[in-house]
Amino acid sequence: MYVGGIYRELLPKAEYFSQALYTFDIGQNDITAGYFANMTTEQVVAFIPELMERLTSIIQNVHGFGGRNFWIHSTGPIGCLPYALIRRPDIAAVKDKVGCSVTYNKVAQLFNQRLKETVARLRKTYPDAAFTYVDVYAAKYKLISQASKLGFDDPLLTCCGHDAGPYNFDPKVGCGGKVLVKGKWVVLGKSCDDPGRRVSWDGVHFTEAANKFVFNQIVGGGLSDPPMPLRQACRSKGQ
């Protein structure tokens, strides 16, 4: 395919594709999509092998185009996210000491177990590539379970949302959401005063401060398999 004009300057050079680090952060949307479609836990779990096949196919395609370095994140503790707790209260009924759904998190952990096994198989299939499995779940759950100690407020309380229920989360009025009052649009989904002290931004995503904490936990390689710092993730081929 011919690429010219401004795109010739913007697109990376062909040789860069084999030098790049391809990051995959998967699982949260896949698991919640199943639950939000009213699947049972058994049905969601039964769907995990197909997700692993899809990931394998995608990585196969990237490898075919020259990709050789892969940084693959486990999914986080979905049972600690306000939107998941609200959307399926039946699944969220049994909670741990932090207030997170036991069932959601067990499924997330099972997903991660299968993901780690998939990464191990990919290493054998593509010995010329570097695959790093990153335990993002551990980093995120540490933040949530030790939020106060780490300088954060209630980890389940949404920063940008509508004051509804225990999580400041209303699925009908999200962050930036407006309602029509006497002919005028009024913003209900407003940011909290100090996002730097909150873990959850909008009930679905983490705040910048929370993401920074997670990054600092994983960048050194202590939660990686193999235990490789991010700056060396392109140098661990065949491990």
TrEMBL record:
It holds the Pfam family Lipase_GDSL. Keywords: Glycoprotein. The keyword Glycoprotein applies. GO terms for molecular function: hydrolase activity, acting on ester bonds. It comes from the Eukaryota. Belongs to the 'GDSL' lipolytic enzyme family. This is GDSL esterase/lipase. It comes from Aegilops tauschii subsp. strangulata.
